[in-house]
Amino acid sequence: MKIVVGISGASGAIYGIRALEALRQCGVETHLVISKSAKITISMETNYRINDVEALADYVYENENIGAAIASGSFKHDGMIVAPCSIKSLSAIANSYNDNLLVRAADVALKEKRKLLVIVRETPLHIGHLRLLVTLAELGGTILPPVPAFYHQPKTIDDIVNQTVGKALDQFGIEHQLFRRWEGS
Question: Which of 47, 91, 106, 129 is the most exposed place for a label (fewest CB within 10 A)?
Fold first, then answer.
């Protein structure tokens, strides 16, 4: 299995980082693109260095490299996760404004009918944001907001992050042990 991971500049860079860690643990080949803003966010929000994040991926592409493998529909993969997905990136993806590799790779996933999952990080949402989300859903994208569940009784921020990343991996049918599932009452 191959998954493309995009990390955009929204708050919540840990979602993309944890996705890379989990995908590696699950034996999934990853292709990573990080936006310029995401590099800033990673340094501000986490203790990870960019080199450490890139080392979690099997392949890394510069966001300006619009000619990279993941920019083509002929590059076979099983889908893409954008985590986190900024409103700027959401807007570009929903409107096919392919001015960088992250957006182009997402657009390619949609046009090739591959799964595109975005973990949109913004709150509150105004009507313009909601319209973009609807547009993306109409194009075939899956929206997974990082809304924590509490049935698994999270004790740490990592527990909350793992539950969201686990839900993302579920969308691709990837088995994992990131959180305790609901078992009913």
Answer: 47
Q: Report the binding-site residues for dimethylallyl phosphate.
A: 151, 167
Q: In the predicted model, is pLDDT for residue 83 greater than 90?
A: yes
138 Cβ contact partners less than 8 Å away, ≥ 6 residues apart: none
Binding annotation: 9-11, 35, 86-89, 121, 151, 167
Beta bridge partners of 31: 4, 59
151-178 pLDDT tens trace? 999 999 999 999 999 999 999 999 999 9
> What 8-state DSSP symbol labels residue 180?
P
Domains of the chain (ranges, CATH numbers): 2-170 (3.40.50.1950)
> Would you list which residues are annotated within the binding site for FMN?
9-11, 35, 86-89, 121
Residue identified by tokens 């991926």 is 57
